Amino acid sequence: MSEIKSVAIAGASGSLGPHVLKALIDANFQVTILTRSKKPATYDAGVKVIEVDFTSVESLTAALKGIDGLVSTVAGTAVENQTVLIDAAIAAGVKRFIPSEYGTCTTSPKVKDMPFYAPVFKIKQYLEEKAKAGELTWTVLACGAFSDFLFGGSMFLDFANHKTTLFDEGDNRISITSMPNVGKAIIGILRNFEATKNKIVRTSQAILTQNGLLKTAEELRPDIKWESSKVQASVILKEGLDGLEAGDFSMPVIMKIVTGTAFGGDIYGCAYDKTDNELLGVNELTEAELKKLVADKLV
After folding, report:
1. How many CA atoms lie within 13 A of 38 on its CB side?
2. Distance between alpha carbon 210 and the CA centroid of its chain, in Å?
3. Could you tell me if 249 and 288 lie in one domain?
4. What pLDDT does 1 receive?
5. What's 81's domain CATH number?
6. What's the rounded Cα separation, in Å, for the pair 184 and 284?
7. pTM more than 0.70
8. Taking residues 192-221, what's their average pLDDT?
9. Strands across the sheet with 6-10, in order?
10. For the segment 97-138, what is each residue's pLDDT rounded down to a tens digit?
11. Which of 7, 47, 113, 133 has a 20 to 30 Å separation from 66 between CA atoms?
């Protein structure tokens, strides 16, 4: 039986948060939402909402009393500040902390010193230190790219305009997982307390390449002609790093770092050949399901 019965979530109103919140409710956990302000929101009647100061250990500790697990889905800009959440979780006696990471190559040592990724590694190291001292346990979930974004945007394939910019030769592999299935994986972590204790777990519904996805699209709709170009992932990454060094901290520059690494292929470990899908209760996409995802974008 799971040792986790009550769960708090930070970042419930973001992109991933609502999917995790739904999974927690559907799994019948006692759910508490930590929020900066109690602005009107359509939360389930059984969910407790507590207004907190995310910069205050005292405020967060009071809100976390009696909570067994804490799931963070805070935005990337708030990742480094999760030390406050961790300290409060320890003070309140929380058993398990799942940090906001949920990335493609965030567990690769090759990105640990890069801007954007460095805060993620700082949090992981902080958790390892606290776990070693016996103060709490943690689990990091690596889930690849969100398929919702990958199929909903134009970075991998531009379905709307029938264009694609291939990274390198178009054969770089990347794992994908939908946001609802990330929620399901988090339930798997909480229900398998010992098996997921103080470790990185991985989930992947499919491993894709641009060429493979393009081939599927062409087979489904041979009447559509695609326009292709190429770019080196390493060049995109360098442009992003050079931009930051020059003092440009804009989102387009940050996205070049994310893109250059996430779509950089096996060099950054972006495809998970070994996963914890079975433990976490996540099913891989069947060929028919993948084709449907593509077909739905080709209407």
Report:
1. 7
2. 21
3. yes
4. 41
5. 3.40.50.720
6. 13
7. yes
8. 97
9. 48-51, 30-35, 6-10, 69-72, 96-98, 137-142, 199-202
10. 999 999 899 999 999 999 889 999 999 999 999 999 999 999
11. 133
Spatial distance between the Cα atoms of 214 and 5, rounded to a whole number of angstroms: 44
Q: Which of 71, 191, 80, 225 is nearest to 138 (CA)?
A: 71
Residues 293 and 160 in one domain: yes
As to burial, measured by CB atoms within 10 angstroms (0-12 exposed, 13-18 middle, 19+ buried), residue 39 is exposed
Q: Is 222 exposed, middle or buried (0-12, 13-18, 19+ CB in 10 A)?
A: exposed
Are 294 and 217 within 8 A, CB to CB? yes
Look at the chain and count its residues: 299
Distance CA 187, CA 25 (A): 10
Instruction: Tell me which amino acid residue 29 is.
Output: F
| Planar angle of CA 124, 208, 103, nearest 5 degrees | 15
Into how many domains does the chain fold? 2
Place of tokens 């250059």: 260
Q: 143-165 b/e with 16+ CB inside 10 Å = b?
A: bbbbbbebbeeebbbebeeeebb
In angstroms, the Cα distances linking 147 to 46, 150, 175, 211, 285 are 30, 5, 9, 16, 11
Q: What burial class does residue 3 get, using C-beta atoms within 10 Å of its C-beta: 0-12 exposed, 13-18 middle, 19+ buried?
A: middle
Q: How many CB atoms lie within 10 A of CB 29?
A: 22
Tally DSSP H helices, then E strands, for the chain.
11, 12
What type of residue sits at position 52? V
CATH number at residue 170: 3.90.25
**Do the Cβ atoms of 167 and 198 come closer than 8 Å?**
no
Query: Which of 44, 66, 14, 23 is CA-nearest to residue 191?
Result: 23
Q: What residue type is 229 in one-letter code?
A: S
Q: Which domain range does residue 123 map to? A: 6-142+178-202
Closest CA to 139 of 70, 61, 36, 52: 70
